[in-house]
Structure formats: C-alpha cells, structure tokens
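Record 1 of the preview.
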Amino acid sequence: MMPQKGFVRTILVETPSLTDNTADAQRLEKCLLDELCTDKIRIPLQVLKNLPSNLRSWGFKARAVLFKDRHSWILVDLLNPISNKPVLGTAVDIGTTRITMSLIDLESGQEIGEAGFDNPQAVIGPDVLARIHYSSQNTGLDELNHLVIDAVNLNMSALCKEYGYQKENIYLVTGAGNTTMTHLFLGIESFEIIKEPYIPCVNIPDTQPAGSLGLDINENGVGFLFPNIGSYFGGDLISGILFSDLDQKEDPCIMVDVGTNAEIVVGNKDWLIACAGAAGPALEGGVSKMGMTAKPGVIDQVWIDPYTRDLMIHTIDGKKPVGICGSGMIDLAASLFLSKRIDIRGKFFKPACGERLLEKDGINHFILVDENHSGTGEPICLSQVDLNSLTSSKAAMYTILEVIVKNTAGLEFEDLHKFYVAGTFGSFINPVSAISIGMLPDLHLETFEVLGNSSLGGAKVLLKNPDAFERIMKIRQSITYIELNVNQEFMNMFSGAKFYPHTDESRFPSLQNMI
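->
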C-alpha cells in the first residue's frame, strides 16, 4: 500500500508581500523543509529557471517530485498542481544474465507493467569476470556501459508505449545489481574488483542526474543504484534484504540467493551476517552442457510418476524440450536419487537406469528425453560429468549454509524462523527436491518462502516508500560480511555433503522412508 507521504507531494508556498520580500527559491525551500521535516534540500538550477512565473501562474501551489541521496532531499521537478501529467518511476534489476524492470506510478504506488530482456553484455562475456577483463581494454568499458544503458532505454520506452505513457513521464530510476554490474552501469572502472585486495571503485554511489547516466527519461529525472558491501556482496542483495524485511524480523531468518555464487544473509533486526561463496555454475549453465537459462522449451520440472516410476517433465510454455535449467536439474537429481537410479555417491546405478543409460566416450549419460521427443532433434542427456558438477554444487551450498548458520551465527537450522530463497533461480526451485539431494537443510516446508526476484522487489519498495532510503543505508551499515575460510574443517564438511543426501543421514529425517 502506498504511504501517505510518497515522492510526489502537493505543496503550498507562502505568498510574498511588501512586508516579506524573501526570494522565491527560499520560500520554496522553507515550504519543502517543513513538509519533509528535514534540514536540507537541493533545488536544481533547472527548476529555478522558471520558478517565479510558475509559482505565480499556479497560485503558489505545486506538485513537487522529490527524491533522496545520502546528503539531503532533492527537488527533482515542480509541476502544475492541477495537471494530470503522470509521474512515473522505473525499478530495474541489473542482472548479469537478465535485466528486469517494472514501471511504477509514483503517486498511487500502482505497478503498471513489467518487462524482462537478456543482458546484451553477454555478447562480450557470459560472466562478470570476462566483462571486467574486456572493460580494461581500450574502449571496452564504454562499449559495455552503452550496451546496458541503450538496452534499458529501449525497453523503458517500449514499456511506456505499451501502457500509453511517454518516457518523459519517468522521473526516478532505482536499480540494483551485483557490484560489477553496478560499476558497468555507471561506466566506472571495475578491474580492481578482481585483483587483490579486491577493492571496488565505489560502495555507495550517490543519486545522479539521469542525463549523467545516459538514461533517456525526463530531463530533470534522477537515477539511484543500491549500494554494495564489497566486491562480492552487491546492491542486489541489499535490495533483497529490504524486500524480505529481513532487517525488521524479531527471530533469526536466512535469505539465500542462488546462482553461479551462493550469497547468503542470516540475522534479524538486531544483527545481520553475510557471506558469498561458489555454489556452482552447474546450476546456471556455466559448467553443465545441458544447464541453461530459463526460456520456452527449457525443462524446469522433473518428477517421478508414482505408478510407472518413469521420469516426467514439464517445459516452460509447454514447448518441445530443448534443455534443462537449474531448478530442473535439482528436480532431476532428486528424482534419480529417490528412484535409486543414482547411488549415495551420486553415481549412475546401471540396473535401475536400464536402457536410458548410454556410454559415450567412456562416460555414462542418462537419457532424459530421446531424440524423437526433443525440440533439438538430439537426445537431452545428463552425463556423469554434469552430475558430478551438480553434486559438488549442492555440497558447497549445504556446507556454506552450515558454516554461516552454525559455526558463525551459533544457531541450529531449526532456529531459523524463515528460509527465504531469492533470485530468478529461486523463483522456480522446489524445496522438496533441494532437501532430497542434501542441498538445503531438512526443515518444515512452511519455513521456506520463495521471494522471486527480490532485487527488483527492493528497487520497487524504494519507489513506493521514501522511508526505505534510510533502511537501505542502515542495512548496509549493519551487515557483518565474512570471508569463507576454506580450511581443512570446511573441506571435511564439504566432503561429507558430497554424498546423497549426506554422509550423516540423520540430518534428513524426512527422507528416511524414501531412501
């Protein structure tokens, strides 16, 4: 619900007289300071240029479009109080693989529409490492910056047009992304992020004029990118904490954003501990030949037919299968394990796999979809190499969770009130499957809550509620970030987690009657 005091407010400026010759700008400033209960506001030159004539023609009333930065409130623009000109904002999740945006009515808080598109920087490099290296060469940084800004402008304009608005109606843009994506969006050098001692150029970017960022919106518009903690904990995670209200919980909760890395935050309103670690590119198509980004025809669900024990599949949009994404791979591994087609070591068990197991170049491949039913004309298979990769990923995920919850926070998994799963990947993950392979702890299913795109969600929260700005800065300040200490104890824990579901089966009581 939209708060009564949002970023658009109708104000009444005190009328001048012969006994009060205060300048128009200072009258406006005093009015806004009282309205906002603050001691500082910035009024840009662009607003001042026509301020005298505007105030007088409007009867000293106006609609003020406002925003914030770390130092003060900002008067973005001043509008005719009786005009019905829309005042919009755009929230953007600047993902490495995919960018998603939402158009918001800043006065009502209504979400008008949403759009998503592949990050065009992928043509230069599929991951942040490749893009950082490219950005350090000649015009590489400018190229990467223009690719993302041009794509955002194009899609913002298309989104406005789709719903009957103009790009000039957009005054505020809030964006959240990982540290590298934030730097590239701002056109800032990022090479030091991947060099010891791994220092970003900026952790807390200030609110910037839209023109300085290359954003094609209202000429007075501004853009704000969520701050990051460091090289490996970005604004997308802070946005996720805001969206989940993790920073306002009484009881300890955890939020996990799973992708090529696992980024984890545990805590409540009194404390927050965060870490990031490699959960495995197998989950997003980095290592596995069959793993791919979710799109039409991609297998996103796999389950066991209770009667025939055959493996059943679901594809996005019901298209012929062309591959499998991260959530589908977890479902597949769980189905293979629970149907005893793979053993506790994560190795294919030939008698149970039967004719579906094919040996190619000395490596076993499990045929999930044969060539006659595939959308590519070739069978869709899971190789032992792919499975090994997934096994390592799930073991890393569980071990990282164990380290941060038990060793660092001093809690048991059962102490967690909520287990939030975030990110695009988290939108589709089936907690039952993740528990079945020992990727997530064996908690009651009501403990788990899928947040979906929490990075976009937090960016939307800020557009709807100015109070969120202080929360964002407080969240950043209150997080204790730890580096995972990959020592012998960690490796021992990791080795135990590489079995299905774990070497210590007592940790997964819900599976006792299933395996």
